[in-house]
Design brief:
By secondary structure, the protein is an alpha/beta fold. Helix content is 41%, strand content 19%. The mean pLDDT is 98. The protein binds zinc ion.
């Protein structure tokens, strides 16, 4: 396939914006980028995708999400509103994830994946929980990802909150699915695996030890860390150590380990994350919604921590997350100089691309260049001031909207063209989710009776 008549944003380092250039795609990869006239002569027979003056850029990447959370939309929490994050967990997320069957898990993933395709997010790192449907849950999600055509990294969150047997089942689900991903190209290599842990506050010393023993060589963990201060208090109570120190003590800070949030870590924990090369993901919309505070992501980046950007399942609109990341630090610190848009791009583009590539045999993701995977979006944005490599991050923060994404492609396959989904039937999938929702909500509400 040849993409013509677009303006390319390559997101190389340094970034380049290229006019009158075409992109030649073959075997799921970008083969060649060059002057359009030259490539049209070189590949006269190949199928063409006319970008019609739009921007052609790599698909967005989400470094931390929860496909299982879709049925929370519109759900009324019984009784008084949760007063803090621990109550949000105990009144919303934990009874909700216990209400999911494998069929619900599949439907929840499917609607989330449609949201991602429509809004130009092509790779997602998911963190799954369904305590009453653990075995095989990652296969069900992998199948949904396969059908969607997107790219994803999956794991199951191990926790002690539902007893020892379910903690063991969670460990087994991770180990089994990681094994499957090592022996099989799941979804033509578009699905990878990592080892999920809920959070220090729901993991005992012995379960952390079992996870360390169970994790295969070369695989990291994906865990929530210090999202609320209670995680730190709990860790100090259990071990006398702060959360990151405790995880380090248990061998959790491995290559490719992802730490979500890190809102309440101290400077020594930041140093430990940096020394161990740990990936931290920032989810400002979720943090604001839960009232947990703002992660010191600028300080973390100055200390050498690789900070990425996720959505926590808030919707797969990465530029919305960019905007929130950009604004949050300014109000939090009462200083408009905080969090430049280029720092947001560092997280949302460069660090996300580097992290996600690790799960796909060091593939090049998130860049338009020969050899990179052909995960590409077309964006119908018409700037009325000059758009340059230097000011692009600010154009994105102030001018880009996910509704401008008209075409989404993954591994060279077009999943949405001119805003029409080509692989999935949205009406059908949302109707199925709506038909399952009353059952999920009923099982959720029954836990309060
Ligand atoms: Zn999360």
């Amino acid at each position: 396939m040849l993409i013509t008549n677009g303006t390319l944003i390559t997101w190389e380092e340094p970034n380049r914006i290229l006019e009158h250039q075409a992109v030649y795609i073959s075997n799921a990869h970008i083969e060649e980028i060059g002057p359009q006239e030259e490539l049209l002569r070189k590949y006269p027979q190949v199928e063409r995708l006319d970008a019609e003056g739009q921007y052609v850029m790599p698909g967005n990447i989400c470094a931390h999400t929860h496909f299982y959370g879709a049925f929370a939309r519109g759900l009324a929490i019984p009784g008084r509103a949760p007063k803090d994050f621990p109550e949000i967990l105990s009144k919303l997320w934990w009874p909700l994830d216990k209400s999911l069957t494998l069929e619900d898990v599949s439907a929840s993933a499917q609607v989330m994946l449609i949201d991602a395709i429509k809004h130009g997010t092509t790779t997602l790192i998911d963190h799954h929980a369904s305590p009453n449907a653990i075995d095989g849950s990652l296969d069900v999600i992998a199948e949904a990802v396969d059908r969607s055509g997107l790219r994803a990294v999956l794991c199951y969150e191990v926790t002690d909150r539902d007893g020892e047997a379910k903690a063991r089942a969670g460990i087994n689900e991770n180990v089994r699915f990681i094994g499957r991903s090592l022996h099989e190209r799941i979804a033509d290599g578009r699905v990878a695996a990592t080892f999920g842990l809920h959070a220090s506050l729901t993991l005992s010393e012995s379960t952390l030890e079992k996870c360390r023993q169970a994790v295969p060589e070369g695989v990291g963990f994906h865990i929530h860390v210090a999202e609320h201060e209670v995680d730190e208090y709990d860790s100090l109570g259990k071990s006398g150590m702060r959360v990151v120190d405790r995880l380090d003590h248990h061998g959790i800070l491995r290559p490719n380990t992802i730490v979500a949030h890190a809102v309440h870590v101290d400077s020594v924990e930041i140093a430990l994350l940096s020394e161990n090369g740990i990936w931290v993901t920032h989810q400002p919309r979720s943090n604001m919604n839960n009232g947990v505070g703002a992660a010191e992501v600028e300080s973390m980046m100055r200390a050498g921590v690789k900070v990425c950007l996720g959505t926590d399942g808030f919707s797969h609109t990465m530029w919305e997350e960019w905007k929130t990341a950009y604004l949050l630090q300014k109000i939090w610190h009462h200083d408009p100089r905080r969090m430049s848009a280029s720092d947001v791009a560092r997280m949302g583009i460069y660090n996300n691309a580097c992290l996600s590539g690790k799960f796909f045999q060091d593939a090049i993701l998130g860049k338009l260049l020969p050899g990179a995977l052909a995960d590409i979006i077309l964006v119908d944005y018409h700037p009325y001031t000059s758009l340059t490599e230097a000011n692009l991050p600010w154009h994105i923060v102030f001018g880009f909207h996910e509704s401008m994404v008209t075409t989404t492609m993954v591994a060279g396959k077009v999943l949405m063209k001119d805003r029409q989904l080509l692989q999935l039937d949205e009406e059908d999938i949302t109707a199925r989710a709506r038909s399952l929702a009353p059952g999920v909500w009923q099982r959720y509400k029954a836990q309060f009776d």
